[in-house]
Write a structure and sequence with these properties.
single chain; alpha/beta; Rossmann fold; 2 domains; 12 helices; 10 strands; Universal stress protein UspA; UspA
Length: about 300
Amino acid sequence: MIRHILVGTSGLASDADLLTTAFNLARPFLAHVDVLHVRRDPAQDLPLYGESIPPDMLDAIIREAELNAREASAVARRMFDQAVTAAAIPMANVPGGPDEGQERVTASWREIAGVPVRVLAAEARFADLTLLTRPTGTPVDLNMIEGPLFEAGRPVLLTGNDMAHPDRVVIAWDGSPPAVRAVASARDFIVRAVEVNILVVEDEAVGAVAAAVSGRLHPRPDRLAAHLAWHGVLAETRLVSRQGRTVGETLAETATDLNAGLLVMGGYGHSRFREIVLGGATRHMLTIPTGCAVLLAH
């Protein structure tokens, strides 16, 4: 069960919805919300400037960067304080026993100076789920997603605006190890959903013989549905035609048509190099805002 959610704040206005979402998601699990703000250290960027910039100009750049970092930290902390007050969430740094009244949602605040991508990846190792925001209409920083996914090997939940607990879940299924891990990581959400759909994009619906020849496993969405039934989940399988669309476009549009609150998918089923050069479902879902949250695992 999810009991420890890591939330990466940015010091932007979108933090307000991110924190509200974190507390909403934590309630069914009585989870702890570990809010982390990484204050960027300008000294980490010095190698990027090289030796061609005059010292006085470099000093000015560093001072401005430090000022911006402090302002972002102040905004992030202010929004955190407002969010915990509005939601009446108690603060806690360590778990307490049931007799101490700690079986409830709690929150904590941490601020660490460093490179955001590196710090977030390091801290994600010790959380059940990492929650990041993608404000509506803007793409996400892929580096912030790849850190927890690849460096920590932990699932990431990417959310847009304020989101309650998702009651309609869509699983993007191709039978790959990343997809298997994504389903396992999302099981706490799946078993609480009122509607679960397993999507297989037409290209993935290869026959058993063709799959054996190509070295791929047949996705067998029926077997996934049977597995979820043991968890009390009645899931419907759907074969979706691409109709000239990319896999990412097909998934995004189908999730919207089904009014999904959460899309569960494996991250980078192909090699990262191939995804970057040729594009892929993962990059599409990360760079093109969707109307639902996306849970990724690798």
